[in-house]
Design a protein that fits this description.
- The structure is a homodimer of 430-residue chains.
- With 430 residues, chain A is an alpha/beta fold.
- Chain A folds into three domains: 3-13 and 228-357, 3-Layer(aba) Sandwich (Rossmann fold); 20-223, 3-Layer(aba) Sandwich (Rossmann fold); 389-427, no CATH class.
- Chain A has helices at residues 20-36, 38-49, 60-68, 72-90, 129-142, 163-171, 182-191, 208-217, 242-253, 268-283, 288-298, 307-317, 330-333, 350-355, 391-407, 411-427; strands at 3-5, 97-100, 106-113, 116-120, 146-151, 154-155, 158-159, 176-179, 201-203, 222-223, 231-236, 260-265, 300-303, 321-325, 341-344, 381-388.
- In chain A, strands 1-13-12-11-14-15 form a six-stranded parallel beta sheet, sandwiched between helices.
- The mean pLDDT of chain A is 94.
- Chains A, B: This is Histidinol dehydrogenase.
Chain lengths: 430, 430
């Protein structure tokens, strides 16, 4: 791993917008689905997945059968993780509120769940049961009455949906599942077909075609943010165990070649020890080629003169994941301004959060932690303002409202007030 | 106004994406600002506004001088409106929280303001002091330490910034103001120049060039939603005063030719009376040509068999503004699923909310109330997850985390846990 002063490092990866050909292909697929509905979905399943799809919807019998195909350890782990994720997200729940005014007026905010949310789940090796939980449970906690999942009917030509995905969906409370993938699945969720009613929001990871399709339908429906490659920054002092630091860096690096794993430390000894440990542990990994390339291209050990300078570097990088492996980690928490998730102390290895503890693993990447948040219950709620003005309040405030409206040249706004002041004033005998 | 059954009506206006020429112009402007900084801003001020800009930043002397140029009524109204807006948005404020586990672990959510927010304010007749309040105050309530405003240095070749805008900004607590407008202002806020540090989020309305520029820089910074034309739906029964209904419909229609004003009612008498009143009141409006075209193209009186059917029609339309003018308006509130702001009863005319009551007037348009919310304090907050796992918790949960990681083929994730279980287990003598 390269070692350099933190002040000389910057991490910038371009956002993937796809080639013109990919964009055209996605646009064509979406328009075909809008036009031909289910027939288009079946055509694309044949064309892209090599599958003749019968029922688009996965039957409850298939979901039940999936439970027979997963082992007990997996089921136990998924169930406990679900409990933890649900508990953490329930703490985020909000309620509608009213502000009762002395003059009889009532102002408020109605907070409601979205009605219908679509969850995209990729096929094959990218089908992560943990992602099903992380995307579906916040929507369920928000109270979304209809959560629907779409996933490809086949992987590399082999028909079928991974039973672990079906089990994770069922455990997260998702029972409406369709075998449709790619841009065509996004189109179906955005505009609806005969079999698949349109949703209000689409979430979940996918390949470039899915990402481009989400971007294309945004506005007709809401979408989540489009995730970039994964990142971890470990801020550590001499008290940290270099083997832990190296293992945690590699757990990000194995994700893909563009993932980034960075150590920031004032300790030269730790820097050297981690460098050695990374090389050592790397050799034993099944995904060592991916991890090695990620470490080479986007990994670094950044030296700082103090942990305070390290914190500044963290805030500049705004990492998706931040581990603080120092003697008293909480003393730095209030100075961390930009990070998706903060892992404190030696036992909070990043996979604890990826899979189990409860907080969401869908996190802002590529520096967007400056202004974005982990996926959370708010992402599945919407608000409406409520204004109930009393006659007393209107008679009191009317002139001021008219002053502002007339200043802005909006006479009809002023008259909507004026006509009431005239009539109500008269009715009052004023 | 045309009258038709609600079931036959649909309102769909296309989102404005600009011409290829407009998009290219915006892209070129942004790249020039990235490259040349302040020099580019001055060049564009000369080219587009016909102004030689001296200091880009508006001095505090200019802001103080602006107070001398606005009249007392305006200042009083702006100040009272600010108090109301601040009060309503303070109710939305949230705090960081912790969930302390029995095993010593701590999970939580840190909630912080964004560091720096840029507010775009258009020049000329589109310069609305009320919009300055509605955009700046929620950011201020959220605790954003740096709120900066940009606005064109001139309108139609006449140099200067409307003093009402400067006063509104000062009243909302905004003291950092730059004379720069258009796509170049958006570029400055997104990427920074010598004089204008980059922001984390850009909010506020603007013309098509500003909207395209916001779309272009999204990702480098956050942006608010891009507003479509304004809309009002009035749901009314025979108890409503037709003059009030007509006045409120016209107050939206005067905004622009694409604004939409719709009455939904089961009362034939009201439908007829409103139709007559709209024609009558229209004649007396200074902006009658705009309002008449809006009413003709996007206005309608929709007849329904019952208020319940009317509520269904409202939810289908998902209007920006909804007025409920019926005998007991609160009885319908819980059935309204999709609306930006709901105005209840005869004294809650829509301009009450536009200017004064406190709720925000930046609202979801074009059906997006299905999944979007009024501008609110959350839009200026970001969250980070916090995970502090205890040794006890890790030893208890480690195997399950490894099960899930290995199932997903992420061996390095499993090993980051395993290496801890081995070492800590041994240290414990387990």
């Amino acid at each position: 791993m390269k070692v350099m002063p933190a002040s000389e490092f910057s991490l910038k990866r371009e956002v993937e917008y796809g080639s013109p050909e990919q964009n055209e292909a996605v646009q064509r697929i979406i328009e075909e689905v809008r036009q031909d509905g289910d027939a288009a979905l079946r055509r694309f399943a044949q064309q892209f997945d090599g599958v003749n799809v019968g029922d688009l919807r996965v039957s409850s019998a298939e979901i039940e059968a999936a439970y027979q195909q997963v082992d007990e350890d997996f089921l136990t782990a998924i169930r406990e993780a679900s409990v933890n994720i649900r508990r953490f997200h329930e703490k985020q729940m909000r309620t509608s509120w009213m502000d009762l005014q002395g003059d009889g007026s009532i102002l408020g905010q109605v907070i409601r769940p979205l009605r219908r949310v679509g969850l995209y789940v990729p096929g094959g090796k990218a089908a992560y049961p943990s992602s099903v939980l992380m995307n579906a449970i916040p929507a369920q906690v928000a109270g979304v009455p209809e959560i629907v999942m779409v996933t490809p009917p086949a992987t590399a030509g082999v028909e079928g949906i991974d039973p672990h995905i079906l089990v994770a969906a069922a455990e997260a409370g998702v029972k409406e599942i369709y075998r449709v993938g790619g841009a065509q699945a996004v189109a179906a969720l955005a505009y609806g077909t005969e079999s698949i009613p349109a949703a209000d929001k689409i979430v979940g990871p996918g390949n470039i075609y899915v990402a481009l399709a989400k971007r294309y339908v945004f506005g007709a429906v809401d979408i989540d943010s489009i995730a970039g490659p994964s990142e971890i920054v470990v801020l550590a002092d001499g008290s940290a165990d270099p083997a832990y630091v190296a293992a945690d860096l590699l757990s990000q690096a194995e994700h893909d070649e563009m993932a980034s794993a960075i150590l920031i430390t004032p300790s030269e000894d730790l820097a050297n020890a981690v460098r050695t440990e990374v090389e050592l542990q790397l050799q034993a990994l099944p995904r060592r080629e991916i991890a090695a390339q990620s470490i080479r291209d986007y990994g670094a050990i950044l030296t700082v003169s103090s942990l305070e300078e390290g914190v500044d570097a963290v805030n500049r990088l705004a990492p998706e994941h931040l581990e603080i492996l120092v003697a008293d980690p909480f003393q730095y928490l209030s100075r961390i301004e930009n990070a998706g998730a903060v892992f404190l102390g030696p036992y909070s290895s990043e996979p604890v959060g990826d899979y189990f503890a409860g907080p969401n693993h869908v996190l802002p990447t590529n520096g967007t932690a400056r202004f974005s948040s982990p996926l959370n219950v708010d992402d599945f709620l919407k608000k409406s303002s409520v204004i109930y003005y009393s006659k007393e309040a209107l008679l009191r405030d009317g002139e001021k409202i008219m002053t502002l409206a007339r200043h802005e040249g909006l006479e009809a706004h002023a008259r909507a007030i004026e006509i009431r002041l005239e009539k109500e004033g008269n009715r009052n005998g004023q």
